[in-house]
Amino acid sequence: MKIVAVEAIPFAVPYRKPLRFASGEVHSADHVLVRVHAEDGVVGVAEAPPRPYTYGETQASIRAVVDTVFAPEIVGLSVFERERIHAVLDRTIGNPTAKAAIDMAVWDVIGRRLGVGVSELLGGYTDRMRVSHMVGFAPDDVMVAEAQRMRDEHGVTTFKVKVGRRPVALDTGACRALREALGPDVELYVDGNRGWTASEAARALDEMADLGLTLSEELMPADQVLGRRWLTARTTVPTVADESATRPGEVTRELLDGAATMISIKTARTGFTGSQRVLHLCEGLGTEVVMGNQVDGQLGTACTVAFGAAHRHTSARAGELSNYLDMSDDLLTEPLRISGGELRVPGGPGIGVDVDPDKLAHYRTDT
Ligand code: MUC
Ligand code: MG
Predict the structure, then answer these.
(1) Cβ partners under 8 Å of residue 293, min gap 6
(2) Which part of the chain is the Mandelate racemase/muconate lactonizing enzyme C-terminal domain (predicted)?
(3) Which residue among 83, 209, 259, 362 has the highest number of C-beta atoms inside a 10 angstrom radius?
């Protein structure tokens, strides 16, 4: 079943409130909808969220690379030649979310064509994941109120707190306020988006030693090679590599270097095909993983839960699946719903969700 066309459609959905973190902030979901058309009329979809401050991709660069580089390379291949498609896309190093969206849209075509959910095709381990919510920078009382609302309205009891500000007391104070307000039963972990130095990170972790943090993610830049090794060796809080480990080779380097003890898998940057490579590598190396959030919309979140629920290893921990709730609207015909702290894999064939043509017409920015 040959691919006949690949479209990259920019759209913009405003956020109700911005998400702020050490490397940037998001006010609007300026994403790209990727549609892969197959010869029998089946269309697969996925979304690419540009993160200029993380990977250097922009909405314009994603459109351009899909239109002028990737689409010409894969049009004419069959959707069942997934390894060939992966090999073609993998010839270049960059453009992770553009490639990931193409990969996932191809899987969506396959699932729709077979009438089977992608999550079942990938592994079918379970049909849901526990949800972890990312709390961005804000005054302490606002961060606490957001976490309490997520717990009260959606049953969420796992929170990833954004850190990496200076002075570190801003963040250690926020984490303390969250622990005091939410009590001992919620899980708290932190993500610095490379904001601190090794010594700042060490001081912050020492100051928070009594808060029962379960993970610490990307507290300092990836190229602080010895600093990361030193911090990982001296802390009892497992260190998670996220944007420093976006490809299997980087994952291997981070882990064997002693620079990280766990890996964040994001379908938004490794698709389904690349994410399975990272997952199986981590399983082979005996390393835990967490399903991360690239500040995804609902389509991206559906991809994350489809992949996360498909495997035992990825569904063991809560996945970061809730920040689409900050968006004022979305593209799907049926919204995702988090309840009892869980998100179920959408039930339809493929990724299991459909784009509403009226919403797309309203939010697309190219017409
Ligand atoms: C995360 O886990 O870091 C923020 C920036 C980015 O690249 O991803 C998000 C969340
Ligand atoms: Mg992160």
Answers:
(1) 134, 266, 301, 304, 319, 320, 321, 323
(2) 140-238
(3) 259
Model confidence at 182, in pLDDT bands (50, 70, 90)? very high
In short, whether 242's Cβ falls inside 6 Å of ligand 1 is: yes
Rounded Cα distance between 229 and 164, Å, is 18
In three state form, how does the secondary structure of 280-323 look? HHHHHHCCEEEECCCCCCHHHHHHHHHHHHHCHHHHCCCEECCH
For the annotated catalytic residues, the residue numbers are 162, 191, 217, 242, 266, 294
Q: How far apart are CA 266 and CA 68, in angstroms?
A: 25
Say what the pLDDT of residue 258 is. Answer: 97
Q: Minimal CA–CA distance to 291: which of 26, 310, 32?
A: 310
Question: Are residues 36 and 109 in contact, defined by beta-carbon separation less than 8 angstroms?
Answer: yes
* Cα-to-centroid distance, 133 and ligand 2 (Å): 12
Domain topology for 120-344: TIM Barrel (3.20.20)
| Measured distance CA(196)–CA(358) in Å, rounded | 44
- What residue ranges do the domains of the chain occupy? 3-115, 120-344
Is 198 in contact with 223 (CB distance < 8 Å)?
no
Q: Write out the two tokens for 257.
A: 């270097």
pLDDT at 138: 98
For the segment 196-205, what is each residue's pLDDT rounded down to a tens digit?
999 999 999 9
Short-list 342, 344, 311, CA closest to 124: 311
